[in-house]
Amino acid sequence: MLTAQRRAMISARLARHGQIVAKALADELGLSEDTIRRDLREMAAEGLLRRVHGGALPLTPPLPDFAARQAIASDVKRMLGRRAAGLVQSGQTIFLDGGTTNAEIARALPRDLRATVVTHSPTIAAEFELHEAEVILIGGRLYKHSMVAVGAAAVAAIEQIRVDLFFLGVTAVHPAHGLSTGDYEEATIKRAIARQSAETYVLATPEKFGAASPHRIMRVHDLAGLIVPADMETELLSPCRDATALILA
């Protein structure tokens, strides 16, 4: 098999299955494992995939900074935010993760809603200046890329709170590799919040599907639901249908 043919097969399989195990692929093709590993190294160097121990995962493009992300898919984010806000009931305690999509939830919530909003994002907290909702702001070391508090102090505070709904922000959604993000400490905080929450939801724009970021948060199966655009391609959503509820916005 020619190198170009192998690389085309690797790309197709990565898109379909979300991972490549070098030994298994080598055995299947009757090639040496070194040959497959060399292909993976070269493809990783060209930015076509992400090498991991024993194989490869899909490549997740680096996110732009917080200010730049505010302008990305803003109409879709507003639509998702309105749909998520409709899940919140009076008297509930909710946790809003950081991120530009979750900021749209805050903007969509009625100003007279009597609820408690917990967040570790100062930018999210500021959205509630004119709302009647009580706001609890979790402190810690500020991770500026996402404008959220991280670290031991944040985890300790989160462990003292129980919430009804957690709106989790992620950078990637994959049926096999779960929900993930690009920073180790931020992933730790997100897992801590999910443990304290009765239900966890993710608002996901199409580009996040089928990708995997370096740091896993939780399984898609553990979500109460994925909130997605109603016009998303069926092919992107199909792998997640058996894992959790799909809520169309």
Task: Characterize this entry briefly.
The protein has helices at residues 3-17, 22-29, 33-45, 66-69, 74-85, 100-108, 122-126, 152-158, 184-195, 234-237; strands spanning 20-21, 50-52, 55-57, 93-96, 116-119, 134-137, 141-143, 148-150, 163-168, 172-174, 178-181, 197-203, 215-218, 225-228, 246-248. By secondary structure, the protein is of the alpha/beta class. It is elongated and about 65 Å long.
Characterization of this structure:
There is one protein chain. By secondary structure, this protein is α/β, with parallel strands linked by helices. It has two domains: 3-57, Winged helix-like DNA-binding domain superfamily/Winged helix DNA-binding domain (Arc Repressor Mutant, subunit A), CATH 1.10.10.10; 66-248, 3-Layer(aba) Sandwich (Rossmann fold). The protein is built from ten helices and 15 strands. Strands 6-5-4-9-12-14-15 form a seven-stranded parallel β-sheet, sandwiched between helices. Strands 1-3-2 form a three-stranded antiparallel β-sheet. Helix 1 packs across helix 3, helix 2 (22-29) crosses helix 3 and helix 5 (74-85) packs across helix 6 (100-108). The longest helix has 15 residues, at 3-17.
